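Hi, can you check this record?
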Amino acid sequence: MDMKVEDASGVTVLSPAGRIDSSNARQFEESVVSALDAGSGDVVIDLGQLAYISSAGLRVILLAAQKLKAKGKALKLCSLSPMILEVFEVSGFSKLIPIHKDRDAALA
């Protein structure tokens, strides 16, 4: 898994690529927590380059959403492939975290 972090007008955009599973969920969590601590605004996770996410990766996203909510900020997801979107729908996460078609929609 590779992670790209960028700032888009005060919104932190995280773009993981590859797979997030039990072998690298800790690395993903460290990257997400570091980005949350460094930023002061909302966060968008662009999942357009993600091929797979396990329950360990979902846990990290849920923790990020909870941490941001406690700060009065929001977490948004975007660019989910049909397979990744299905994981979020089946797990119920699509009801907890806003999912947008693409990055522009998430940043709007």
Remarks:
- The helical segments are 25-38, 55-70, 82-91, 103-107.
